User: What shape does this take?
Amino acid sequence: MTTIDAVLNSIDANLEAARARLFDLLRIPSVSTDPAFTQHCQTAADWLAQQLVSLGYTADVRATPGHPIVVGHARAKRKDAPHVLFYGHYDVQPPDPLDLWEAAPFDPRLIQGKDGLEIVARGASDDKGQLMTFLEACRAFEANGGLPCHVTFLFEGEEETGSPSLPGFLAANREELSQPDLALICDTSMWNAQTPAITVMLRGLAQEEVIIRGPSHDLHSGMFGGPVLNPIHVLSKIIGDLHDDTGRVTLPGFYDGVPELPQDVADQWRSLEFDEEEFLSALGLTQPGGEAGRGVIEQIWARPTCDVNGVVGGYTGKGSKTVLPAQASAKFSFRLVGSQDPKAVMESFRAFVRARLPADAKVEFLAHGASGALQLPFGSEALARARRALTAEWNKEAVLAGCGGSIPIVGAFKRDLNMDALMIGFALDDDRIHSPNEKYSYTSFHKGTRSWARVLDALSA
Amino acid sequence: MTTIDAVLNSIDANLEAARARLFDLLRIPSVSTDPAFTQHCQTAADWLAQQLVSLGYTADVRATPGHPIVVGHARAKRKDAPHVLFYGHYDVQPPDPLDLWEAAPFDPRLIQGKDGLEIVARGASDDKGQLMTFLEACRAFEANGGLPCHVTFLFEGEEETGSPSLPGFLAANREELSQPDLALICDTSMWNAQTPAITVMLRGLAQEEVIIRGPSHDLHSGMFGGPVLNPIHVLSKIIGDLHDDTGRVTLPGFYDGVPELPQDVADQWRSLEFDEEEFLSALGLTQPGGEAGRGVIEQIWARPTCDVNGVVGGYTGKGSKTVLPAQASAKFSFRLVGSQDPKAVMESFRAFVRARLPADAKVEFLAHGASGALQLPFGSEALARARRALTAEWNKEAVLAGCGGSIPIVGAFKRDLNMDALMIGFALDDDRIHSPNEKYSYTSFHKGTRSWARVLDALSA
Assistant: This one.
C-alpha cells in the first residue's frame, strides 16, 4: 500500500474522532466583532495551538492589536520537500438572529439533511470546518510517517471583521512567513456537491468618488434655469459616456492587460451548463446585460467592469423642488482582471472626467483604494498537481473558478509575502454561511480532508 | 388742467397722508403661515375692506378654508369704461430672524437710505406698499370726479403660503370675477430704480420624477457586477442624452411653439446692457452655459429648459460600498415658453425615456404638475397703453420683462377666469423681501401711485 492510500484509510477510520474535535472547536463562540466574545477568541486560538503542539509541531499564539494570530511550523519527513503556508480563520460571524436557529448555534449537531449528513453550527462551514479538513489531513500523515511538505500554519481571528491586524502582522513577520513557496487557503466553495473547484482568479477593485461642482450655491431653477450649468447633467453625461452600445467600457486603455480565456478554460466553463436564466431570474432579470456576447460566468469571473455604486445631487426628498444644485457626486468602482494596472485605469478615468467638464465645472476626486486582480497562472505546476489530486478524489475535473469579488488576504499574501495562493474549499452554496443554521456537509468534511491529503501528496511528488 | 394732471397733483399733495395709511396697514402683523397670527390676517382684510368702503365702493371680507379674501367693486364715471381686476395680497412673510432687524418689523419707519427715503417694515414692498399704490391712485381719481375704469378688487391673504384657497375661490365666484377684461397685478419689480418694467412673459413648468428599476434587490458589485444592469447607468444615459452639444434639448418636438423674440423686444433687451459677467460671478461662474448663442436674459426669460433638480441611487453615505443598486431616480423639470404644450412635452419625454430602456429595466413616472407659459401678447393694445403711461411717468421706456419662474395666481387668472394679466410693480432688487429690514423706496411708493393713475387713465382713453 502506498503512503497516500494508508493516509486516506487513516482519515476514513478516524472520521468520527475528527468530527468530535471539530465539535470541540465549534463549541467555542469565537465571534470576532463583539467585544463580549473576546475571551472566546483567545480560547479558540489556544485550542488550535494546542492541536498543532499535540501533533508535534511548534506553535504559538501571538498577540496583535486585535485578536491573536496562531503561527505553527511543521517539518516534512523529506528535508527538500516543498513548503506551503496554510491559512484559515477561527473567528465566526455573530449568530444573530438567534430565534431563527433550530438549535443553539454553538452546540454543534450532526443531523440528516436532505442531501446527507450535515454538521450544523455557527462556523461549521465558515471557516472552522474547512480549516479542520487541512489539520486532519496533516494528522493522518503524522500517523503514517510524516508530512510530505513543510507546512507553516497561519490562523487568524479577524477575518470576519476585515482582517485589520493581518497586514501589519505579515509585515512584522515577513522573514518567517515568506519562506513557503505557496499559500493554501480553505475558505471557498465547490462548484456543486459533486464537483470540486480551485479558485484561480480574483478580480481587483479600484474605487473613486467624483464630485462635480457648478454654481457656488443652490439656485432657483426658474430664476436661473438656462444659462447656469447643472452639475447633475455634467455627471450624468460622464456616466453615460463610460459604456458603448455593446456594453464595453470606453475608457482609453481600459482593456490593456485583459486576457482572453485560454481555450481549455473557456471550454470548461461552457461545459458547466450554468443556468443563466435561473441565475438572472433570482435577481428579477430575464437577460444578461453587460458586454455583448460574453456569458454570465465569464463576465463575473474574468471580465472587468465599471459600475456606479451610488449617485446623488440636488433635491432627493418627496415631491418636487425647483432647485439647480451646486454639486452632484457619484461613487465609481472598477473590477479589474488579468494584468490591468489599477493606477493606469484611475489615471485614464480622471482624464476622461476632466475632458468632459464644461467651462466653470470643477471636479474633486476622492480615491477609495485600488488593487489589481490576482491570478494563479493557468500554467502553474502547483495548479496542475492540485487538479490531478482533486480529480482522483472526486472523479470529476476540478473547475478552475474565478471570484468576482476580492479576498483581501489573498492580496495581502501576494503583496506582503510575494506568494501565490491556491484556494481550494469544500463549502456548498447552500451552507447558509453568515446566516442562521449554518451547516457543513459531512461529505465535505470527509472528502475535503481526503482532498488535502491528496493535494499535499501531489505537491511533493 | 386735464383730469390726469389734477389726479397727479392730488397724489403729490396727499402723499404724506397716503404714507400714514400704508403705515397703519404695515402695523398689522398679518403673517399667513403662522396660526398665531390668524386674527391679524382677519384684521388686515377688514382694514382693506374698510378702505374700499370709505372710497364709496362695495366691499366684503369673504371666508375661505384659509385666510379671508377681500372682494370689492368700484364703478367708473363712464358706464362704457373698460373693466379691470386689481390683485394684491395683504399677507406677509414671517419676520424671523428678529434679531437681524434694526427696529421692530411691524413698527414701520421712514428713514433716509443710501438712495433716498425708504419705508422699512415687513411687507413694505411685498406686497402692502405695492398694493397701496393702486388704492391711492383710485383715491386720487375719486377726489377728481371718479375712476376712469370699472375696478374689481381682489386681495388675498395666502400668497406667501402658495394661495391654496384662491383657485377654489375663483371657481366658486367665476361669474362675478370674470367680468373684467384684464387683470392688473402689482407684485413685481422695476428693471432698476430709474426704469419701469412690465412683466409680460412667465415661463411654464412641467415636472416629472422618473424611477428606473433593474434587479429586484441591491446586489454585491463583485459577485454580480458585469451581467447585471445598473439603473444608475440607464438613468445617467437618459439624462446625458437630453441635451446636445449646443445646449439644446433633444426631445422630439420640444421646440414646437417656442417663438423667436420680436425684433424690437430683442433690441430692447440687448440695449439693457445687462452685465452677464457680474450676474454669473455672483453665482461663482464665469461663462454662460445653456443654449449656445443666447444671452443670459433671453435664456431665463424667453427660452425653455430641461433641468434635473435631483438624482439619487445606490449608496450615498461616506466612503464606498460595492453595491449594484436596484433603482435610481431623478426629478426632471421643464421650463416652458410661448405656446409649448406641457402635455405634448411630457408625452415626448416619456417616450424618450422608454426608448432608452434596455431589456429588464422598468420605469415609473411620477407627475408633479404641468402648466404652460403665460404670455401677454406683445401686440396687445392694453400693453401699448400701459407702456406709454409708464414712459410718461418715468421718462424711460418700460422694459418688457420676462420671469423665469411661474407666478401661480397669473396662471389661475388665465385658467379659471380666461383673463390676461398686466404685471407692473415698483419693487427694487435690493428691497430685501422675505428678509430682515425689508424696505420699499418712498419714490416707488410715490411714483408707483402716479404710474397707476396714468395706466388707468391710458386704459380708458
Remarks:
- The mean pLDDT of chain B is 96.
- Chain B touches chain A through 80 residues (CB under 8 Å).
- The CA atoms of residues 39 and 197 of chain B lie 35 Å apart.
- The longest strand of chain B covers residues 204-213.
